[in-house]
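wait is this the right file?? whatever heres the structure
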């Protein structure tokens, strides 16, 4: 065994050594974040062991866990203890922490799957070491240590806030590497060591659970690879405008998760038949198609039909219909309700599941933030908006009587936390009490939202919080029977025809007014700064103005303008970015664009860039030539925009269209 590499780290008592053990825990439980050839690790058992001569092992498992893992850990410890002692500095009587894990290789598209590799990991907190001991099973079914692949990670205190993280391993002649579960020594010394050093001082504590924490990772990896291969042709024939790579493989991953989750549920509950489902707000319907093909009876409902629906065939049941939460949209014979990026229906899905039947369960993957009555309004500044919204949807599930579980999916999306309601927290005879509780909760949310909206519009309520607390005793009679069984009169389902709301459809005069207003604000934010115009413009100096944050810009716009922009996706920022001739928005700050500093985009090939520039050249008036007090910073021959109507020319695109027609 020799020193493979050392990385220096700095951290006071609040950071190290605690940060080091947190980093080790990441490598133990989520090795795939460093080694992309692994799909994860299964922790089979962990507990305290004694290196004494009697070979005692007393693994401690959490309540409710089976003792098989503890027994296996104890047996392994007794088998390998004598081989292990030379690698440990601990003397007799000292407690060590042992973890038995199985490394799970990522399933390959071709060839036989690589088997899991068991490792015994021993942590000596007092000496700052953690030793990884791969295990091999011999012909008699007993495990022995694969000595050539033992490695140890050490934390050493040098002095004050100086520490070092080191990896010790055998010589390269003895080390065996398959590039997957046994990586190369150079990878351990370079990649893993640098990651451990970085994690040790980052002090990042994720507010979300580890990915796939509720299902077996190995089973997920196998099924995902099978489905990915099965549905890869969908990418080639995808008729929608959305990115096929993202949407196909994301729905494959979500389908895989549900299939494994449901298989585990059938084992747990002794169910013979595969679960039925309804996907509310099914969108492109691919998730419904996959689940149906895998033997689950179900259907999808969406307000708007998609082109791709016609490609699935009659076995995939998809319906074009609006869903308004109420008595007419219950699913008493359905096992699971699915909300995959279900927008305005997201908080309603636990309610619909609770009222459909006592046995109905649900799965939601929240994306856009909606309350029962419309857009979700933030109430806690100490949380991220995403975390706050997830907590709200989880709260809805709890109010509906579900034991809500949270997990994180492996999908190409920033919004990948799902909430699952599998089991109820109340007996069947209490359904009516829970239903009243749900009614009260929805009414309270609606009333508080009205108060908050009134306050925004200038109505004064002396005590917002008192009013929200007090409405629970003022529930209108027969509220839930209003409007022919609709649970919330005035609920607005998604519009059948999707509107363009990226500021592109706003009236031109409105947009021009905002652009001029913001530009003048930037130009007058500080005394005019002069820059030498060395590029031959029509003036010797040119004022680039000052930069302001989006918040500062918004504060100078009137309420009506802001209200109109809020109804568009991205609001003020989107409008300014759309007008990229005039503005640059960088890191939340707005700048006047200086065209003298513009460089060609690296993302666009030079020949394509030249073609696009030629087609668009002088087809629009130069904003700066007309509105900027110093005119345009570029001379007419260099500016891509027209300096006056006499320079305007017709767009090549328009000419082509006229020729075609």
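ok assuming it is, sequence goes like this
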């Amino acid at each position: 065994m020799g020193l493979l590499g050392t990385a220096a780290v700095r951290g006071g008592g609040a950071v190290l050594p605690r940060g080091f053990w947190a980093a080790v825990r990441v490598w133990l439980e989520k090795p795939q974040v460093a080694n992309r050839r692994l799909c994860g690790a299964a922790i089979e058992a962990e507990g305290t062991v004694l290196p004494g001569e009697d070979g005692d092992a007393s693994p401690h498992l959490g309540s409710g866990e089976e003792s098989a893992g503890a027994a296996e850990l104890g047996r392994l410890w007794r088998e390998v203890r004598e081989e292990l002692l030379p690698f440990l500095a601990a003397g007799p009587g000292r407690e060590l922490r042992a973890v038995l894990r199985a490394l799970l290789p990522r399933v390959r598209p071709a060839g036989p799957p690589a088997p899991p590799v068991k490792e015994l990991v021993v942590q000596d907190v007092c000496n700052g070491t953690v030793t990884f001991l791969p295990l091999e099973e011999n012909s008699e079914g007993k495990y022995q240590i694969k000595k050539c692949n033992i490695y140890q990670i050490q934390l050493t205190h040098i002095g004050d806030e100086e520490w070092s993280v080191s990896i010790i391993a055998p010589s390269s002649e003895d080390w065996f590497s398959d590039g997957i579960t046994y990586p190369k020594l150079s990878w351990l010394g370079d990649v893993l060591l640098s990651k451990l050093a970085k994690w040790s001082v980052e002090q990042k504590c994720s507010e979300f659970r580890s990915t796939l924490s509720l299902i077996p990772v190995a089973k997920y990896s196998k099924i995902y690879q099978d489905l990915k291969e099965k549905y890869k042709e969908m990418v080639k024939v995808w008729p929608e405008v959305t990115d096929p790579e993202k949407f196909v493989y994301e729905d494959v991953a979500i389908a895989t998760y549900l299939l494994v989750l449901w298989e585990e549920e059938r084992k747990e509950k002794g169910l013979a038949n595969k679960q039925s489902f309804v996907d509310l707000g099914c969108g492109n319907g691919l998730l419904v198609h996959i689940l149906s093909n895998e033997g689950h009876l179900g259907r999808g409902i969406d307000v708007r039909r998609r082109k791709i629906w016609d490609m699935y065939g009659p076995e995939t049941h998809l319906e074009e219909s609006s869903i308004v939460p109420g008595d007419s949209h219950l699913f008493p014979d359905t096992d699971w309700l699915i909300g995959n990026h279900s927008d305005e229906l997201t908080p309603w899905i636990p309610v619909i599941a609770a009222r459909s039947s006592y046995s109905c369960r649900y799965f939601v993957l929240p994306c856009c933030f909606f309350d029962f009555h419309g857009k979700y309004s933030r109430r806690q500044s100490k949380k991220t908006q995403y975390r706050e919204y997830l907590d709200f949807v989880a709260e809805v599930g709890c109010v509906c009587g579900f034991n809500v579980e949270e997990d994180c999916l492996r999908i190409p999306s920033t919004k990948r936390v799902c909430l699952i309601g599998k089991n109820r927290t109340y007996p069947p005879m209490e359904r009516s009490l829970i239903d009243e509780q749900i009614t009260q909760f929805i009414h309270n949310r609606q009333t508080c939202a009205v108060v908050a909206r009134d306050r925004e519009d200038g109505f004064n309520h002396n005590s917002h919080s008192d009013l929200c607390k007090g409405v629970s005793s003022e529930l209108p009679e027969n509220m839930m029977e209003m409007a022919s069984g609709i649970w919330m009169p005035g609920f607005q389902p998604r519009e059948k025809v999707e509107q363009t709301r990226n500021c592109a459809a706003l009236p031109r005069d409105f947009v021009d007014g905002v652009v001029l207003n913001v530009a003048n604000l930037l130009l007058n934010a500080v005394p005019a700064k002069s820059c030498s115009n060395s590029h031959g413009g029509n003036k010797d100096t040119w004022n680039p103005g000052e930069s302001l944050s989006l918040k500062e810009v918004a504060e100078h716009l009137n309420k009506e303008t802001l209200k109109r922009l809020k109804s568009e996706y991205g609001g003020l920022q989107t409008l300014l970015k759309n007008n990229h001739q005039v503005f640059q928005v960088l890191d939340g700050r707005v700048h006047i664009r200086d065209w003298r500093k513009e460089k060609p985009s690296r993302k666009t090939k030079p020949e394509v860039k030249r073609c696009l520039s030629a087609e668009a050249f002088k087809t629009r008036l130069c904003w700066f030539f007309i509105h900027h007090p110093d005119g345009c910073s570029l001379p007419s021959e260099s500016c891509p925009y027209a300096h006056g109507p006499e320079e305007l020319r017709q767009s090549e695109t328009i000419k082509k269209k006229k020729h075609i027609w």
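The chain has a mean pLDDT of 83. so i think its the right one actually
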